[in-house]
C-alpha cells in the first residue's frame, strides 16, 4: 500500500510540468496550453506578453516549425494570447474557458482537460493515432477496456511510432475507464 | 588533432543506443516524455558545471553568468546550451556528411574520412546565441530568457575548413549560400528540420569549420556530436549541430529558421511593435564585452583588477574602455594581443583601478571595433531580442 503510494508520488514528481504549468484561464486557454506545451514550457508565454501583431508572427513561426494545429485553432490561440498576454493592456480577470467547456459531454471535457486532443483526433492521425485506429486495433478483444485504461494512465510509446505519450497519473480509475470505453466505441 | 574515435563512441558501442541509456536509469524521469534516440535533459546537465543556470527545461537552455566566464578559453562544461529541437543519439560509425547542390560532384564523408583527407585545424572561436542578453531588453522580447550576459562561450574547435570541402566538391558558378542541416529531431513528426544557410563568402572564410572536437575532446552530445558547423562570431544558429548535409544554393535557404526566426529590423523600430517586412537575416555579432572579474557586489580591498572579455563577429576588437564614474570618463584597458590564427576568439582585457576611498564603485565596460563602432549603452530594441550588446556594469564594495 505504502509502496504504491510512494510510486504514485514519484510519478507525480517526475512530471511536475503536467500539473502546474498553466496559463490564465479564459476562452481558448486549454487549447493554447495543450498545443504550446508539446514543445516548450509555458513560461515563454507568461514572461513575455506581446502585441497582437507580434503574437500573429509568433504563431505563424510556430506553425512553420511544426506545431500540429488547424487554421481555426491558430486563430483561437491568437485571440486568446492577444487578450490575456498583451503587452499593451492588462489581462482581464480569469474566466471559464468557454471554448473547452462548450460541450456538456463529460467525455469531451475529459479529452480537453487532459490534453488528449492536442495529439489525437477522431478520424485522422495528428501526433498520435486517430481514436478510430485505436478502436480498430482492439476490435474483438475482450480485455481491451482495462488494458487501454492502463495504457492511458502509464503513457509510453512503440505501438504507434516513436513519439511517446505522456502518462496521466492524476486521472481517476473511473475517468480512465470512461475514456477507454469511449475510445473503443469509435468505429 | 585527437582522433575522434574515443570514449563516446566506445560507450555507444557498448550500450547500443537509447534503450540502453534508459536502462542505466539516466534521466529516467524524462525518458517517457522525450522520444527514444535522444539525450535527456538530465543527462546533458550531468556533464555541465554546477554553476550553470538553466533558463528553460523544454527546450533545455542554460549558461553561466559573466563572473563564471573568467577563462581565456571557455571550458566545455561552461559552454552554453541551446537547441531548437532535441539532442539526438548519433553513432559516429554510421554518420555521413553529404555535400550536394551546386557542386561538380556530390561528396559524402564519414568523420574519419574528413580527418584523413583534409588538413585538420584547431582554432579558438566565439559562439553566441542570437538571443544572448535578451532579458535585458525592455519591453521583454519573445524567446529564451537569456541573462544579460548569458548564452556565449569561446572554446577551441577541432575539424577541417569548410572551404576545403567545398573546393573538393567544386562549387559551380551561381552559388550564393551554403545550407547546413542537422539531425536533431522534434517532439512531433511535423517538426520542421533545422536548416540555416550562410553566404558563400563566410562559408569560404578560413575560420568557418566543420568540427568534431571541442577543447581537444570529441563534441559533447548536446554540442553536436559527432559533427557540426562552427561559424565563429556569427549567431550561434549558423553553426549547425549534428551536421549531416551541406547544400550549395543559388539563393539563401527558404525555411522557417531563415525567414521567421533570426531576423532583425534593418533600422531601429518602435519598441513593442512587430517585425517590419524588410527585416534582414541576423548574421555577425556586433562589438561586445563583459566584465568577468570581480563578481557583482564582491567585497574587495586595495587596487581592483577589472578583467573581462571582448569580441566582435566581423573585423576585430580595437580597444576596451572602463569607466568607474558612470560614463563621465573612460580609461583604456590593457587588451591581449590579437591572434592571427584565432581571429574570432574573444580577447582578454584588464584594468587596474586604484580606489581613492572605501565605498561602492561601479565599473562599466565599452569595447570598440576596427570599423569604429562602439558598444551602445542600450542597443536598439528588436522584436526577437537579438544582439544585446549594451555596456556591462559590475559594482563592488571597496572595504577600508
In total, how many beta strands of chain B? Answer: 28
Query: Which structural class matches the secondary elements of chain A?
Result: mainly alpha
Continuous helix count of chain A: 11
What class do helices, strands and sheet pairing of chain B give? mainly beta
Oligomer: heterodimer
In angstroms, what is the radius of gyration of chain A?
Answer: 18 Å
What radius of gyration of chain B results from the CA coordinates? 21 Å
CATH class of the largest domain in chain B: Alpha Beta
Quick one: overall form of chain B?
A: globular
Which parts of chain A are unreliable, with pLDDT below 50 for 5 consecutive residues or more? Answer: 4-19
Task: Work out the strand percent of chain B.
Answer: 25-35%
Number of strands of chain A: 0
Helical residues, percent of chain B: 10-25%
Strand order, largest beta sheet of chain B: 7-6-17-12-13
Strand content of chain A: under 5%
**Biggest sheet of chain B: strands, sense, closure?**
5 strands, mixed
CATH architecture of the largest domain in chain B: Alpha-Beta Complex
Outline of chain A: elongated
Would you tell me the overall average pLDDT of chain B? Answer: 92
Sequence-ordered SSE layout with sheet pairings:
The complex is a heterodimer of chains A (187) and B (400).
Chain A: H1 2-14, H2 16-20, H3 29-36, H4 43-46, H5 52-65, H6 71-84, H7 106-113, H8 116-119, H9 131-137, H10 144-154, H11 173-184
Chain B: H1 7-15, H2 18-23, H3 28-31, E1 38-39, H4 41-46, E2 53-56, E3 61-63, E4 81-82, E5 87-88, E6 97-101, E7 107-109, H5 111-117, E8 120-124, E9 127-128, E10 152-153, E11 156-161, H6 162-169, E12 177-182, E13 195-199, H7 200-203, E14 209-214, E15 217-218, E16 228-230, E17 243-249, H8 256-259, E18 263-264, E19 280-281, E20 288-293, E21 299-301, E22 304-311, E23 317-323, E24 331-332, E25 334-335, E26 347-353, E27 359-369, E28 392-399
Parallel strand pairs in B: 6-17, 21-28
Antiparallel strand pairs in B: 1-5, 2-3, 3-4, 6-7, 8-11, 9-10, 11-14, 12-13, 12-17, 14-15, 14-16, 18-19, 20-22, 22-26, 23-24, 23-27, 25-26, 27-28
